[in-house]
Amino acid sequence: MVGGLNWTILGVHFKVLLKRVMSLGLGNGKNVVFQSFNKMVILGSILFSVIAIYSSYLYMFPAIQPVFRNDEVKNSSLVGNGMIGDSRERGNFLSSECNVFNGKWVSDESYPLYNASECPFAERGFNCLANGRKDNRYLRWRWKPKNCNLPRFDVNVVLEKLRGKRIVFVGDSLSRTQWESMICTLMTGIEDKRSVYEVNGNKITKQIRYLRVRFSSFDFTVEFYRSVFLVQLGSVPKHSPKRVTSTLKLDRLDDINNEWIDSDILVFNSGHWWTPSKLFNMGCYFQVAGKMKLGLSIKDAFKKALATWGSWVEKKIDANRTQIFFRTFEATHWSGSRQTCKVTNQPWSKPRGKDWSPFSDIIMDTVRRLSVPVKLLHVTPMGAFRSDGHVGTYSDTPSVPDCSHWCLPGVPDTWNEILFAFILSQN
Ligand SMILES: *[C@@H]1O[C@H](CO)[C@@H](O)[C@H](O)[C@H]1NC(C)=O
Ligand SMILES: *[C@@H]1O[C@H](CO)[C@@H](O)[C@H](O)[C@H]1NC(C)=O
Ligand SMILES: *[C@@H]1O[C@H](CO)[C@@H](O)[C@H](O)[C@H]1NC(C)=O
C-alpha cells in the first residue's frame, strides 16, 4: 500500500514538473538559449530527484523490490516447487526470470495448430467453426510470457519425445478438452490417421469414464479419466436428513485411482464442479471418516479433497518415473447475476478480476506443501483475457450458451504447448 501511494504522489509531482517544462517551451522564443538551459536544469533536477526518491524508496522498502522484477512470483518457494522457473533447470523458458504464466496474447497468423474438422477426436460441441461461428480472429493468438518465449511447437520433436509413453488426464470436461486438443495437435504430425484410434472403439461423450487413444506408430497412449471431484462418491449413511441423496467422501480418492498410477505424464484438474448447483442443489453433501459434514463449506471441502489427493500423490506416485501436473482453475466469462454469456470477437485487454480464483489458490497452496514435485499449469491468468475463446452458442446445444468451455482449436492448445515445453525440458 505504502509503495503504491508513494508512486502515485511521485507520478503527480513528475507531471506537474513536466507541465512546467512544456509551458516554458511554449514561450515567445525571445531567449531560446536561456530557455534551453533552463529546461536542461529542470530536466536534470527532475531526473536527479526521481533517482534520489527511487533509491531512498528501495532503501526503505527493500523487501518490496521483487515486485518490480516479477509481480507474479510473490513467494520464492513457489518458484522451486510447482511454478516453473526452477533455478535448477536451464534455458530461457525455464530461467528464474521467466514466469511462463505471466504474459499476454499476441496476434499470430501461424495459428491455429490444427483443423478440428479434420480431427476425429475433437468433439462436435467444441468445434465452433463447424457449429457456425463466423468470426475467426479467436484462432490466431499466441501466448507470450513477459520475460521469455514459449518454445515453438514442433510436432515431430514432441511425437518422438512421447514415444513409448503413457499420458493420463484426470478431471472434468475441461480435462477432456485438453485431452482432445493434445490428440488433434499431435495428429498433425501423423500421416496415416487410422494409426491413431481409441483402443475400445468408444466414442467421446460427456459422461464417459475412460478413453484411451493410441498413437500406434509411436507406441504411446493419451488417456482421459473422468473424475470431476477427484474424490469418491458415496452412498447416504442411515439417519441422514432427507435432502441428502448422495455424498462425496473427501478423505477417499476416486476408486479408479489405481489406474492413474502407472503413467509417465499425469495431468489433473478439478474446480468447475465444486458449486452449490452441482452439489447441494443436487442433494450431494460431504462426508469425512464416514460421518456427514453438512455444515462444511465448498471451499473447505475442496481443500480437504486436495489434501487427500496430495497424500495419495506422495504415497502412490513414483516421482522419478511420473511427471505430475495440476492445472489451476480455467477462467470462465459468465457475466452478471443472471449468468449470461457474451463471447467477444477480441480478447479482453484486461483480466477484470478473472485472473484469480479461490480454487487456484487452494491448488497452489496444496502443491507447494507436497514433498514430491508437481508442476502447476497456472492457466487462470492467461484464460482471463480470453472472453473470445468460449464456445458460447457455437456448441452442440446452441440453446444453452456456454462461457466455461473453450472452442477447439483455441485456448486449451496453449495449455498443451506449455505442457509440451515442460516435458521436452525433462531429460
Ligand atoms: C513462502 O511460503 C512458505 C510456505 O507457505 C513459507 O514457509 C515461507 O515463509 C514463505 N516465504 C516468504 C518469503 O513469504
Ligand atoms: C477444415 O477442414 C475442413 C474439412 O476438410 C474444410 O472444409 C475446412 O475448410 C477447413 N477449415 C479451415 C479453416 O482450414
Ligand atoms: C528417485 O531418485 C532419487 C535420486 O536418484 C533416489 O534417491 C530415490 O530413492 C528415488 N526414489 C524412488 C522412489 O525410487
From TrEMBL:
Signal peptide: none
Topology in the lipid bilayer: Single-pass membrane protein
One Gene Ontology molecular-function label: O-acetyltransferase activity
Keywords assigned: Membrane, Signal-anchor, Transmembrane, Transmembrane helix
GO cellular component term of the entry, any: membrane
Superkingdom field: Eukaryota
Domain Trichome birefringence-like N-terminal residues, every copy: 97-149
Recorded family membership: Belongs to the PC-esterase family. TBL subfamily.
Protein name per Swiss-Prot or TrEMBL: Trichome birefringence-like N-terminal domain-containing protein
